Amino acid sequence: MVIMITLGELAEKLGGVVKGDDNCQISSLSTLTDAESGQIAFLANAKYRPYLETTKASAVIVSEANAKYCQTNALVLANPYLGFALVAQLLDTTPKAANDIAASAVISADATVGEGVCIGANAVIESGVTLGDNVIIGANCFVGKDAIIKNGSQLWSNVSIYHRVEIGRDCLIQANTVIGSDGFGYANDQGNWVKIPQLGAVIIGDNVEIGACTTIDRGALENTIIESNVIIDNQVQIAHNVKLGAGTAIAGCTVIAGSTTIGQNCTIAGLVAINGHISVADGSVLTGMTMVTKSIKEAGIYSSGMPSLPNKEWRKNASRYKHLDDMYKKMAELEKAITDLKNK
């Protein structure tokens, strides 16, 4: 399916200004370098401005400051990157995870199913489940007992929602994600691990997006809580009783241990590891591969990952690291000797 829209219609929907032909027909998006006739590109980074002279795009989304450099039709917006996102939504042709209710879906007789719900092939909806209006459940999904999925939320294929999990309005959960699995709770009895039943649930707010193959564990006693407008990438592990504040973004392969509270509007890059039973202040930024072992009490940018080096240099540094304590002691001795000399 191809969506056609004029540049003038885009400007009206996005509150922008057209410089050029209002009737220019747009069918899809592309980059400045790869765009062809009928496509719209965008300029959000000034270093790509020279490509405005050579792009074959029918139109480009630009700021007012860059509009004068554009050699084709322009859609002028205050925030071109946001404009790109909104135009992408208008031209999106991604299919729904399901259409109608498949004959092979298994739906408990006492489940509550709202208006306009679609459930894909072989999905299982268990006893006591509540599905709000326009919820979409993809093929092979499992929704456990007494779970609640509110209006407009969509699950792609093979998502597992355990019992008593609550998912808010207009959430999007990508394939193979698991929400509400047991937290990693065990007591040790003289070398034998004794399982602690995880009695809490997972409560997810509105407008939350969760990537593929991510796991969010249920709480041990209280709930794991994901507040509204959180975005979580693929292959993220969120342990039991974690609380994620509204507006926080988490990139792929990050791990958050149990009972940790992440503040609002935090940005957590990929491969970050966050210890359990700590807190991270609102607005904090953790760069890639950061290891957080204690609470962060003030917003800021925090890093600890080791950048790559040529192997020979890395091995040399790694060897020296083993002698770091000896080097510290020698340095302290030298500093003391210098101080003693100065005091003579």
Automatic annotation (TrEMBL):
It is an enzyme of class 2 (transferase). The keyword Transferase applies. CDD domains: LbH_LpxD (cd03352). Pathway: Bacterial outer membrane biogenesis; LPS lipid A biosynthesis. One of its GO terms (molecular function) is UDP-3-O-[(3R)-3-hydroxyacyl]-glucosamine N-acyltransferase activity. The active site is at H240 (proton acceptor). Its EC number is 2.3.1.191. It comes from the Bacteria. Residues 24-90 form the UDP-3-O-[3-hydroxymyristoyl] glucosamine N-acyltransferase non-repeat region domain. It catalyses: a UDP-3-O-[(3R)-3-hydroxyacyl]-alpha-D-glucosamine + a (3R)-hydroxyacyl-[ACP] = a UDP-2-N,3-O-bis[(3R)-3-hydroxyacyl]-alpha-D-glucosamine + holo-[ACP] + H(+). InterPro entries: Hexapep (IPR001451), LpxD (IPR007691), Trimer_LpxA-like_sf (IPR011004), UDP_GlcNAc_AcTrfase_non-rep (IPR020573). Pfam families: Hexapep, LpxD. Keywords: Acyltransferase, Lipid A biosynthesis, Lipid biosynthesis, Lipid metabolism, Repeat, Transferase. NCBIfam families: lipid_A_lpxD, PRK00892.1. Catalyzes the N-acylation of UDP-3-O-acylglucosamine using 3-hydroxyacyl-ACP as the acyl donor. Is involved in the biosynthesis of lipid A, a phosphorylated glycolipid that anchors the lipopolysaccharide to the outer membrane of the cell. Belongs to the transferase hexapeptide repeat family. LpxD subfamily. Homotrimer. HAMAP family: LpxD. This is UDP-3-O-acylglucosamine N-acyltransferase. It comes from Thalassotalea fonticola. The lineage of its organism: Bacteria, Pseudomonadati, Pseudomonadota, Gammaproteobacteria, Alteromonadales. The gene is lpxD.
